Amino acid sequence: MFDNPSKKSPDTLRSARWFAPDDLRSFGHRSRMMQLGLAEEDFMGKPIIGVLNTWSEINSCHSHFRERAQDVKRGVAQAGGFAVELPSLSVDESFTKPTSMLYRNMLAMEAEEMIRSHPFDGVVLMGGCDKTTPALVMGAISANVPFIYLPAGPMLRGNYAGRILGSGSDAWKYWDERRAGNITDEEWLGVQGGIARSAGTCMTMGTASTMTAITDAMGLTLPGASSIPAVDSGHQRMSAACGRRIVEMVWEDLTPEKIVTSAAVRNAAIVAMATGCSTNAVVHLIAMARRAGVDLTLDDLDALGSDTPLIANVRPSGKDYLMEDFFYAGGLRALMKQIEARLDTSALTVTGKTLGANLEGAQVYNDDVIRPLSNPVYREGSLAVLRGNLAPSGAIIKPAACDPKYWTHEGPALVFDSYPEMKKAVDDETLDVTPDTVMVLRNAGPLGGPGFPEWGMLPIPKALIKQGHRDMLRISDARMSGTSYGACVLHVAPESFIGGPLALLRTGDIVRLDLPNRRLDMLVDEAELERRRAAWQAPEPRYERGWGYLFQRHVGQADEGCDFDFLTRAQGRAAGEPSIY
To answer: How many CB atoms are closer than 10 A to CB 553?
Structure first.
């Protein structure tokens, strides 16, 4: 147990400010609790636990959360606390348009303000779908009230006609085969019905599993919680255990500022690289770190990536397995045990114990799924950071998920200014394109998208698909799904919409990618670039009102984590406890 000499007592609980005083305002608070059918014995002197639930009927990743919230509340009651469930914005990846990333910061703000404004002594955060994990954690870090994260867990393996299907990854693959005329409509519909068979997040190592693994490695979940499949009975037991543990954390006054340290952030980054993480990890991890006052940079991540072997043989960076197999092979605890020497095992976690203590006894049960360091999937980590005259503030590539022949490549650019323009062109079988062509999409960044959409896995032109080609070099200032693969350079910063160098590139210009030297350049002389820069005109803003207006005025660029400028720790700590009068 965490040895904290300043443990809480009932009279020092945060919720006591709302309920304990003998005054008119607290009388009102107590009477409204009684209006709910509660007696003072239900809530007075007990830790009050907020359960922030991102369930919704349109978020299939979280379709089991109604039941899991009940498991959490059962655990809270078992430990002597009182649980209050609140609905939170459900930022689902599948249906939220133009992109769920537009609303990550909205959920982060909502979580922070819900925690601060209510009489919660501790919080259980229920999320999993891509943006919900970083959003909830960002908000809770800023609120600095004890919290524990409950990951939704991956869905079961997909299946069609005896073939194992992986979320996203196989959708892209079979779509290309359909465009090439190699599969029937019946087979396509069979894949559609078989690729998502249960509640839970994508079962590839996409953004959802990446971000829950990062949160697990950062010490913010129960050990190994991120690996448990959503529909496994162990997930119910883990949910109840979250309820019990958060009550103990309140008494121990175990706040996030004691857990989310530079060591914890570094551990999370190393684990992310070893898992074959989504490229989206870069944006979210930087934002999460900066909420805690840890100045994580692209160069830090590149250095860790170049020194961390990828040992999780899970699609899309791995070739053979999915998250269910990863769980059976020992899960994240087993993977962290393999790289234990690279981690700071003294880092504190929500268990009140160190990371090292949490890893005791962890074992690998299938060393083809979780590889030993002597036999990695890829000898460097999942991601690499590129710089050059096309991306002076950085760009991201996932080397293990693309054809190695594109690691060093030079070819003519084919530039598109919008997704509709690009989509129309790639379906034109007469398009003037070769395997050496470098496809470029711009105006798809945080401001240009708007919202930094997942458009970066540009479809291979139909003309090349029919010739048998399945990869080519593609560059954009967009993101891409963590379930995607291919030679895609992403997050080019500064983005073209604000005049970044990508805005100056023209069709026919030669582009050079030099992955070994971490370079991305257009071979255009500086005098010509200056002429183009002088002629460039800024596009009209995307929004004139509402959330989009706030977003475009305050969102940071990709290399800064795309958080709002007024929400990072650099802007100072958030306001203290609310006044109660």
So the answer is: 13
Question: Are 301 and 385 spatial neighbours (Cβ–Cβ below 8 Å)?
Answer: yes
Structure tokens given for 210: 């990446």
- Distance between the two ends of the chain, CA-based, in angstroms? 37
Strands 122-127 and 519-522: unpaired
Quickly list DSSP for 228-283: S-TTSHHHHHHHHHHHHHHHHHHHHT--GGGTS-HHHHHHHHHHHHHHT--THHHH
Buried b (16+ CB within 10 A) or exposed e, 104-122: bbbbbbbbbebbbebbbbb
Report DSSP state, residue 398: -
**CA–CA distance, 99 with 29 (Å, rounded to integer):** 39
AA letter at 41? E
281-321 pLDDT per residue, tens: 999 999 999 999 999 999 999 999 999 999 999 999 988 89
Neighbours of 154 (CB within 10 A): 34
Q: For residue 204, which of 162, 172, 179 has the smallest C-alpha distance?
A: 172
> From the centroid of its chain, how far is CA 547?
21
Report the alpha-carbon distance of residue 309 to residue 248 in Å, rounded. 37
Sheet arrangement for strand 82-87: 82-87, 48-53, 122-127, 147-151
- Please state the pTM of the whole predicted model: 0.96
Position of tokens 């085969």? 177
d(CA 94, CA 277): 20
Residue holding tokens 């006052």? Answer: 293
Q: Over the stretch 156-189, which tens digit does the pLDDT of each residue have? A: 999 999 999 999 989 989 999 999 999 999 999 9
Q: Which of 157, 140, 158, 161 is nearest to 149 (CA)?
A: 140
